[in-house]
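Record filed here:
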Amino acid sequence: MQYPSIFKQGKIGNLTLKNRIVMPPMGTNLAGPQGEVSDELIAYYEERAKGGTGLIIVEFTCIDYEYGKGFIRQVRLDDDRFIPGIHALANAVHKYGAKVFVQIHHAGRQSNSSLINGKQVVAPSNVACAAVGEEPRELTTAEVKDLVNKFVQSAIRCKQAGIDGVEVHGAHGYLINQFLSPQANFRTDDYGGSFENRMRFIEEIIVGIREKCGKDYPVTVRLSVDEFVEGGIDLELGKEISKYLEKLGVDGLHISCGTYDSMDRIIESPLFEQGWRVYLAEEIKKEVTIPVITVGSIREPQFVENILSERRADFVAIGRGLIADPEWVNKTIEGREAEIRKCINCLHCIHSTMGNSHVLCSINARAGRELEFKELQNLPSDEDRHVVIVGGGPGGMEAARNLALKGYDVTLFEKGNKLGGQLHLVTDPIYRKKMTWHIHYLEHEMTRLNIDVRMNTEATVEGITSLNPYAVLLATGGRPRLPLVEGNNLNHVYTYEDVKLQDKVFANSKITVVGSGMICHGTTRRLAEAGNDVTYVEIPTKASKRIGPETRLRLLEKLKQVNVNIVTDHKLGGILPNSVIVEDLVSGKQSEIKSEYVIVAMGVEAYNPLEGTLSGQVANVFVLGDAAGYSSLGDATRDGFEKAYFLESIVTHCREEEVTQTL
């Protein structure tokens, strides 16, 4: 076996797990409107259990709906009426030999008044979380004791529902973490002050669960062993907390870090190296003998194997990697590693849930929609249908992949010499590696599924019609969008593609880059690193809205490190032969930035040159991805997947419309 450490059985307490892969808890917004387990939630977790995961820890589950809520549609266990739903979820996971824990949770000061019907948030002390900005009310001693009981009662309900164990959420700045942290806990009663007093809240929870559920019922704790917040828990204090919890009889520790005030350490952007926080678990493992779970942007099987074989941790949690590919484990054990759709850390799943949608994934269109998109329906064996796809970007390849799986004969035209489209334009070294993963995955699928890929071939009407296609999907992508200002067509104005594809080489020049988003930042840094004097004028774009505030600040800091002059809160007024005019958004005052060259990185506009001429000669012509006006990897993937999945229905609908119009 190639990865013996991954597929070696492991134990947490007396519970045996079939392998060393854990799915950590991640909010999905798939619960029902009252926090009940929904069919969609069950299908989501069942898919990951079916994919071979050893232990699934169900997302943070509310033990106090009045004050403890942390999400719009958060799963609840604060009442017995929620037991049947949790029981159904447990049964669905158990069908595939996986084990399942539930993470029990209270948000504390990291809730907000809009989540709890306008009430003031509560916390150990009346110290606000800066990221939330709401001053909490300090819990009374009686309320603290009542919350201990609520945690315990939720654990009892887990056991009654057939859940294999519970994880107590003591990480990420939530209520238990707030009691543990000297930065958040200034109480003067038995639950604050000394180390032992700050530990008392979680200690009473652990002891209570042990008393009510039995010493053999597995209990783990998730910990932020470094909050990365001034005055908060650091690694040395994290070690002391971990050793204390082991003495209390905890069965395992799930090692994490960060709070809402250091959110980029909890949910890593593409700029973080794979497994960057494994060192935290490694340090804790030196201090305790109970199992340690590590987590944090871990994607590749060999990387996981190394962690386990080197005894840096006992289990490895793969979170967003299992959103991107629920079959990660099965593909690994079956030697199908090249078929793994590795997470690229794009944060699409996070932005979707934070935007009050359910969880979505930019490279797996089925994530969170497992009930909507079940197994692909194959064509009848007596039918031979040919589909032509124009464009080898992610949308075109995703459509080709799914059509081939359905039994279509697929030909894909790509005018360039490589597949992947605009994914190649990412230049940040760490992020580029992740994008390369996805390009290689899609390329491998084209080969595995025997798709007729015609490289360096410009699709023509004659070439397409000669294949007598059942349908044509145009995935011709987009081209750089230019700002609608005077001077946008001057000879010294270039686009990010000119820089990325090295059609124009810039050296020792005074350059202004206009735009925003990951590609824009990469372009700016690349120009500065080449020795140019670069000014970056940040203009909001669709691409920039997909970047969280923490990631944006990290990107700006990288630009400062290479001496880029940064201009924010301005709009572009115009482009002159030797300068750029910008206008302050507040004062309206205009200023001039001297520039030899101007580089525009403001996103893309649709490029669709074939639809008009093809529509009169081929019956079923459809446009997808950037060519249809979309502008993100997630949109392109979803559109390619859906058009392939529903192709027969789309064709039928279009024909019915044509008949209706004729009548």
Q: What stands out?
A: Residues 386-479+606-662 form a domain with the Rossmann fold fold (CATH 3.40.50.720). The radius of gyration is 27 Å.
